[in-house]
Amino acid sequence: MIRKTIAYASLIFFSFLFLAPFYWMISTALKSDDEILQYPPKWIPDVLHWENFGNAWMSQPFNLYLENSLTVTILTTIGQLISSSLVAYGFARFTFKGRDFLFMVVLATMMIPWEVTMIPLYMEFNYLGWINTLKPLIVPSFFGSAFYIFLMRQFILTIPRELDEAARIDGAGSFQIYARIIMPLMMPALILVSVFNILGTWNDYLGPLIFLNDQSQYTLTLGLAQFKGMYEVEATGLMAVTFLISLPPLLLFFLAQRYIVDNSAGVAIK
Amino acid sequence: MNTESVVTHKQPAMTVQPKKLKGRAFLTPYLFILPWILGFLAFTLGPMLFSLVMSFFDWPVVGEVTFVGLDNYVNMFTDDPLFWQSLWITIKFALLFVPLNLFIALFLAMMLNQKVKGSGFFRTVFYLPSVISGVALAMIWAWVYDGEYGIFNYLLSLVGITGPDWLNDTTWALIAMVIASLWGQGSMVLIFLAGLKSIPESLYEAASIDGAGAVQKFFRITLPMVSPTILFNLIMTIISAFQQLSLALLLTGGGPLQSTYFYAMYAYDNAFKYFKMGYASANSWFMFAIILVLTFIVFKTSGKWVYYEGDNRRGGEEA
């Protein structure tokens, strides 16, 4: 009994700590510019200033940034779904020379800090004339990503091989087996990878920061960071835009919660 | 060559004559993993080797490139106080953040493991901050910490504490970053919870029969059983501390007086602010060496922490 009480008390206390910054963001976003300067701070604004959202959003080319963010997010997700699944299928379903070594290399690349490749990648993309375009953010996703390859390979290993063999007897080739049998059965893994990729790309800051200079190419995270640096910006507007930009990841998380929560815990332990 | 070979590997699908296909079948698996091989060469291995070469040169973005041998590395250790300072700040951050993070996450996971009602709700709450962008996180916390109107100091004042001006105080800015990072790492709770759930109930029952108390059970069963998870997370968190960049850039800009000038930011500035690409490459490789050593420790001790779920099926044979 006492143990449960302690458990509930601490969980509720920590939940408050975890939720308070979110609440503070939303309540600030809805306040008037005078209200945020009051002390002690007001938890609930007298009047809800919904117009803050529209005003702050329209004060900068956030619509343009949104377009850029959407472009990158959608294209990288398509790229990862195609390329990572092909590679995962190759590793999961064939025995070939060097397979185990190559798969070790795939796993090893997950450990390489981004800072090591950041500088030469910048120079490589600069040489290709890709700096200040969205290409450096999009193109690499069409060549697979170690973590997604790993996730998909693990999933394919759980699909019974008998299905492949039956299809092969019916005359299907390897690519057809991949496209007609493995891909449809792999839907949960595809959803998981999409969710991870959408969250990762939408939230990415360092990639856009390094590869984009021109405001017309900015993604939302860059736009938000720049917005903060502006002289006349009020906390109300800043929190309003922060909230709007965080909304899609939060909604996606609620929709796909089952997948993320169960899998992230499982993957991390393996 | 690429498109051509894709076509050739498609053909065997139409005619089932396994014997003749040996040569083509040999290529098939390589064609499937080809995207990764190309990407690995172009975006990982190539840049890495290039970066290693650059680290032995004086390499400005514009202008003459000169070979300097080990000078970049030597200068870094002997002639650059910022190198040592940023390294120390990074280690200090890790020393503060890692134990706190592990302690809080393990504690909350144990509370969740008490078969509480609404555990789904709590899990969601702890995970929520790790879903949003690091930029959004920094924006929120900059406002939470605000010296005049911030909610953080207001809450502290309710319990009689006068908080510092967090982000503008050389002593407290780093602590402020630790707290903000803890908020973003609540997902660790779920990793521990999965570890706790894997401990067989029978162990606790047996201990109870032998008269063990709650404290004994924690130190004799729970802690040893989740120690693999702890070790794994420990190393992973230290590694990620070395890559701490966006929070420093956005929350404090490395300040005040470079009190939150992390190692990654130091390397970033050398590259993209001062355009010393060769020197910055040497910085990166030194960091990589540290991470390699840490990773090596993980693999050396992997026998202790690697955890296989019961239904690992065919997955086990390779890895």
From TrEMBL, chain A:
Superkingdom classification of source: Bacteria
InterPro entries listed in its UniProt record: MetI-like, MetI-like_sf
Membrane topology: Multi-pass membrane protein
Domain ABC transmembrane type-1 span(s) in chain numbering: 66-256
Keyword Transferase annotated: no
Keyword Metal-binding (UniProt): no
Cell compartment(s), UniProt: Cell membrane
PANTHER family linked to this entry: ABC TRANSPORTER PERMEASE PROTEIN MG189-RELATED-RELATED (PTHR43744), SN-GLYCEROL-3-PHOSPHATE TRANSPORT SYSTEM PERMEASE PROTEIN UGPE (PTHR43744:SF8)
Protein's name according to its UniProt entry: Carbohydrate ABC transporter permease
Organism: Brevibacillus porteri
From TrEMBL, chain B:
Domain ABC transmembrane type-1, chain residue ranges per copy: 87-298
InterPro entries attached to this UniProt entry: ABC_transporter_permease, MetI-like, MetI-like_sf
Cellular localization per UniProt: Cell membrane
Classification via CDD domains: TM_PBP2 (cd06261)
Highest taxon listed in the record's lineage: Bacteria
SUPFAM superfamilies in the cross-refs: MetI-like
Matches recorded under Pfam families: BPD_transp_1
Regions crossing the membrane: 30-57, 87-112, 124-144, 172-196, 230-257, 277-299
Keyword tRNA processing among record annotations: no
Keyword line: Cell membrane, Membrane, Transmembrane, Transmembrane helix, Transport
UniProt KW Heme keyword: no
Membrane topology value: Multi-pass membrane protein
Family statement: Belongs to the binding-protein-dependent transport system permease family.
Protein name in UniProt: Sugar ABC transporter permease
Organism of derivation: Brevibacillus porteri
Source taxonomy: Bacteria, Bacillati, Bacillota, Bacilli, Bacillales
